[in-house]
């Protein structure tokens, strides 16, 4: 091979940061050495991998083609290095980006299980909306995403982790709380506080409600679930949230789940990862550990 792992690492870092100087800082190299490595790689491959736009570097078509292959090559190299040094088959670093519900209610137990089973795997976690989780995985900022609802992007693979459902809740003092069922006409008359547009919860709710209602009186939109719960518990607002989020508040009678017989809002929580990365042992470990975890929960329930 006429190219080196160093050149591939330089290419990947520039693609990540969009800047030669930032890539140099990340790799602890001089800017001139970083530029030289990229030039040598482009010369060897006979293709320009970036378009220079001032100080910003944008991937060309060939750079886009190389990116997932470079990621896979670097991951394999790290696996070889850490595997031999630690005598451990599964080791390395994985970045996970999760939407709010799985991040709060499932991810802590998953990371704890990974720490116990694979002590040499280092997991970095971030929390964003489902839309931004998908963007992070597509742009290589995260190796694995955990989202609410569906993803139809052909560039990603999706695997259902577990199932959940959304429920409409009101305060215990709300006039609707004592009703055996709530009609769509009453829902249309209510004031609402909801998750922000782009969240998995909001997308599932709108998909379910729009065939029945075209307009809701939405007063507030927040990306922080405890704010929505507190507003609803202490006012006449309605909100719609995952059952996992509101279950403790329903059990403590701070919130009441409203019965809307015609409204079904089942949804899934899923793993997503890039389809073009090939085999990835760390992603496989996380998925398998997560599936065993929820299987164990269902057996106990």
From TrEMBL:
UniProt xrefs under PROSITE patterns: HTH_LYSR
Superkingdom field: Bacteria
Family under the similarity heading: Belongs to the LysR transcriptional regulatory family.
InterPro entries, alphabetized: LysR_HTH_N, LysR_subst-bd, WH-like_DNA-bd_sf, WH_DNA-bd_sf
Alphabetic keyword roster: DNA-binding, Transcription, Transcription regulation
Occurrences of domain HTH lysR-type (ranges): 1-60
Pfam families (UniProt xref): HTH_1, LysR_substrate
Name of this protein: HTH-type transcriptional regulator CysL
Signal peptide: none
Database matches in SUPFAM superfamilies: Periplasmic binding protein-like II (SSF53850), Winged helix' DNA-binding domain (SSF46785)
A GO molecular function held by the record: DNA-binding transcription factor activity
Protein's gene: cysL_2
